[in-house]
Amino acid sequence: MDASTQHIHYERLIAKARKLVPVSTAVAHPCDEASLRGAIEAAEEGLIKPILVGPAARIAAVAEKTKLGVTGFEIVDTPHSVASAAKAVALVREGKASLLMKGALHTDELLSACMQKETGLRTGRRVSHVFIMDVPTYSEPLFITDAAVNIVPDLDSKRDIVQNAIDLHVGLGLGAPRVAILSAVETVTTKIPSTIEAAALCKMADRKQITGGELDGPLALDNAISLDAARIKGIVSKVAGRAQILVVPDLEAGNMLAKNLSFLAGADAAGIVLGARVPIILTSRADNLKTRLASCAVAGLYARHLAQNQPVRV
Q1: How confident is the model over 145-175, as pLDDT tens digits?
Q2: Cα-flanking dihedrals φ and ψ of residue 131, to 5°?
Q3: Predicted confidence band of residue 81 (pLDDT cuts 50, 70, 90)
Q4: Where in the chain is the domain with CATH 3.40.718.10?
Q5: Given this model, what pLDDT does residue 7 score?
Q6: Does 314 score more than 90 pLDDT?
């Protein structure tokens, strides 16, 4: 694949989001250059309309030091990061923001505010993270879940993780996805518990406990994404060799897989958290501009889908 075709998946998503009205976004504690620059650049691209929530003096100091213009952006003053997270969540609850974006605070601080029973953004779903990977050598966007929130999810949590990812894929206009439930092997064995859970998830899909996608598993990574590998193993499946969503056994496996693709295969990894009332944009200081913009584009497109369809949360 030549350089001209690399990262076209992000370009398409960003271009689609640019055609729409920017989404009001509560940015929690943008008190360093990376988080403030990410919000401003996304605004300049017409993807979001940021509300900067944090200590006003610190935001102004960062803006001055880095020559980032914050004139024209609403700033909501808060004393510290915990208060920033709580206020950003409150803005969503009040209908003043349709997205939540992480700034220079710990992910746990932001998610803790989201998960408060009375004041947060909880739904009946388990919150989970999805990496939307733009892999230059793969023909379409590749979703990986969960590699950032749920450490060792049980079967019920995996059901929500799978459903969240399916809903995102459909909500972005990418169609009903092919979902591979990953393990080390493609056969069910009591020696590897993740193979049993993979088989159970597939049966849950058969019984409509998971809807909207085509599931298969357990599948090893090679026969999930390589038609040749699937053919050699004799696997006959609509998913094998052409998966669009990879569901990993646990956070460690997912984190390693995503970083492997990023650092060894030249992939970019946009990421959002699902399962709350609104999508949550999680960016990293290591993210490049295209990845930050893709995260905002994906979150904005999905937020509009949720608002238009008002899905039942189960």
Answers
A1: 999 999 999 999 999 999 999 999 999 999 9
A2: -90, 130
A3: very high
A4: 124-275
A5: 64
A6: no
Domain with CATH 3.40.50.10950 in the chain: 1-122
**Share above pLDDT 90 across residues of the chain, in percent, rounded to a whole number:** 87
Residue type, 66: T
The CATH number of the domain covering residues in 124-275: 3.40.718.10
CA-based nearest residue to 77, from 57, 96, 63 = 57
Of the candidate CATH numbers 3.40.640.10, 3.40.190.10, 3.40.50.10950, 3.40.50.1820, the domain formed by 1-122 belongs to 3.40.50.10950
SS3 assignment, position 194: helix
pTM above 0.90, yes or no: yes
- The answer on pLDDT for 4 being more than 90 is no
Range 168-171 contact pairs with CB under 8 angstroms and sequence separation of 24 or more: 168/130, 168/143, 168/272, 168/274, 168/298, 168/302, 169/143, 169/213, 169/244, 169/245, 170/212, 170/213, 171/301, 171/302, 171/305, 171/306, 171/309
Are 238 and 253 spatial neighbours (Cβ–Cβ below 8 Å)? no
